Amino acid sequence: MDSYAENPPSTMPDAKVSPPTRSSGSTQNTTKRLQTELMNLMLSNTPGISAFPSDATSLLHWTATIDGPADTPYANLTFKLTFEFPSSYPLQAPTVLFKTPIYHPNIDFSGRICLDILKEKWSAIYNVQSVLLSLQSLLGEPNNASPLNGKAAELWDSDPEEFQRQVLARHRDLTDEEMEI
Amino acid sequence: MKIRSHFTITLQPKVQSMLATSIECKRAWEVLENIAQSYGRARTSYTQSFTDGLTQMIKQEARTETDVQNMAKDAVRRFQRELESLFVQAIPAKRFSKTLSYVLFDAGCKLFRLHMNAPNFSIHSTETGDVKRRLVQLLKGLQMVGLGGDAAHRSFAHAMDKLLSEFVVSHYMKVDWYGKLSVTAKLKEWIKDGFGQLVLLVMECLTDSTTTVKLTFGMAEITSWQKMAIERLGRARADNLFDYIVNWDQSIGAILDLKEYLTTNSERAHLVVSFTGQLYRRLLRPGTTTTHILDIYIYVIRAFKELDPKGVLLERVALPIRRYLKDRTDTAKIIVSSLLADIQDEDGNHVDPGGDISIEIATEMLKPISSTANDHDDDLNWGDLNWTPEPVDASAEYKSSRANDVISYLLTLFDPGDFITELKNILGEHLLTNSDSSFDKEIRLLELFKLRLGDSQMQACDVMLRDVVDSKRLNTTISSSRPTKPPIRAHVLSSFFWPPLRDDTFTIPATVAEAQAIYAAGFEAIKDMRKLHWLPALGKVTVELELQDREVSVDCTTWQASVIHAFQRSSSEPQRVGGVARSVQQLEDHLAMDEALVRNALAFWVGERVLAPHPDTPDTYVVLERLTSAARTTRAEVEAAKEEAAMEAPGGGGVVTANDLLDRNRSLYETFVVGMLTNQGGMTRARILMMLKMAVPGGFPGGAEDVGTVLEGLREAGKVDSTGADVWAVKKG
To answer: Which domain holds residue A66?
Structure first.
């Protein structure tokens, strides 16, 4: 107790130091949040979706797996995705890309996704699990109003059989080597 | 000419036969003396006959008497020289020089009595006089017949070289175990007074007396010989350094010898290489206990601090030990428990703390700590007159202001975090088991740790200690305001700061549960409605049993008490002859307790001779109401049960070990591994371990082997498969 009274200046530098450390504190929060999400994901064990960090040194990179929903052109196919979390996550949305080649109205050929909750409608209440579930349902119900792949959007409505053929032609499971990249 | 042929015929075979076979050491003296004598005799007689013949020949030609004498002298000298060369040619040079050098070496040994006991350096003493006389005579004889000179000098040099080495390993130079002093001073003295004198003597004998060169040895020669000798001594010491380290600190004399030897970098390098080799050969083996390695490491630290106060050598030789210690899983545990161990009783007498404690560490902990406040950079202190540059062979990370005490070396073995985890576990165990002491020692130890590891890291330990001390106060308060029957004392622990504690649950006897409720009410009244979460498995109970013929009072664990409580005859049960019987299954159901705990408790009570296995039904136990003679005979069984109870105690103490943790969370780990392999494809075991360590909250407690067990379990469940070369992947289909 006495020591506090004698040298109050010693507490001053600490107080000054704390603002810059907030950024590192926020990455810590991000890590903590991602760890919790991972734990929940593991424990809930939702069928058809799965995700796991891909980098042993950081939790900011994940790989995810989605099974194509039954009764859609994507049934019995599996898709790999990557998640890149910004250090400000969950205030900002993660960057999600399809790694497995996919033929879909809202996904372009380099795997970029047009989904509102990943863009302007992102909110901190979403998490990896909800994003994956949204993507899974997007496979069955594309938003043809704002297509990234216009041809696919047309085919979806006009010629489901041709669409199915295109999906199968485009789909190819990734090898382990490609996964590493 | 006649003489030459005479020599060839008579003397040469004799001499050659003498040297023909390799000469036994014992006979070397004789042989050389014989050679010298026969050559001497031959020389005299040849010269005599030569002179006789010569005088007659010369007399006929000579004009004056002086001419005769001069010519005769010349001729005789020429003749003698020829004779000498004849002699030299007649004997095998190599063997002769070897023999001579042996003789000289032997003489040296005898003179300095290397193989005897009384220390006496002087070669002028009367006892060694005989040897000396004999040597001088022999050498003079050899010199006279022309066997001296350069060849003999070479032999002599060879002999002295051997003599020096011999002396260094002789009893004179043995390590001073009692005086704990260096022997180098003694060695230097010997070089000056003994060795130098001998060299002088021999050289005088072996040098042509006609030459006028005066033989002297200045200080320069003596010093260079001393250097040579010390170098040899140092090498001998370096090769046995491990033995000296093991016998620290009786062996400090040897270390001081080495210190004298270590003057150049090549010598330091040699020492490091040699000692590292010894370490690998003799210490860093799977068979050595970690405790032993730690003890030796401390000796090494102390010895090398003596040897090289700058710590450069220590850094080098300690590297393999440190690396090896890091690989051992129990190192941190042993260090921490040794630091906490009691090796002194109240009177300061040493007590043997038993197996897993390094006594050296514990002793070291008792020492007062030197001030570690001297942290500022010494290089910037311009006024420091004792400043020296850093040693040239120091590595880049070398820091001269390394803390001086041994404990800090041990604590830098690992991250402070690792130590604190270990410390928390051991301290928790320690606090829970020694609930009676006043914790003075623990408080002191914590303060010591804080000085070394920093305040902030030790917060949890502080809280743990305060919890226990507070609990004592709380117990007094609550038990005085709300007395319970039976009396109950609780430890109130802040679960956030404590390591995981065992939380096996079971039904506790109703009376105890009531007491707990009263206590909890008292606690809530004091502590502002904070709730207590009871950990029944952690307690200690004193049980008093009233049996028909005796009373038993035992201290035991709560589950053991609960089990024996279940043997109490309930009112509904009919009175029967003999004790109450319960089966294992009954107890499990009744107490909602794990089978392992039930069996442990039963074994304990069998050991206390309160219960016995039912003679007819398996897995059923009966109360021994009367200790009959029949029961007494089963002493062996009882002993076995006692042992079993001690061994089986599940988890033993209150703190959950890494292994228990691993078992408990196995399904969680399995989920993680499956998730990982689903998304990442095939992975090696090492990578899986790395990912687990990062991804699992709280970290993965095990190592590669534990990952292996998890993977094997999953393989048996058909979820994953090994695709060869330790790569694992999710099973398809």
So the answer is: 17-180
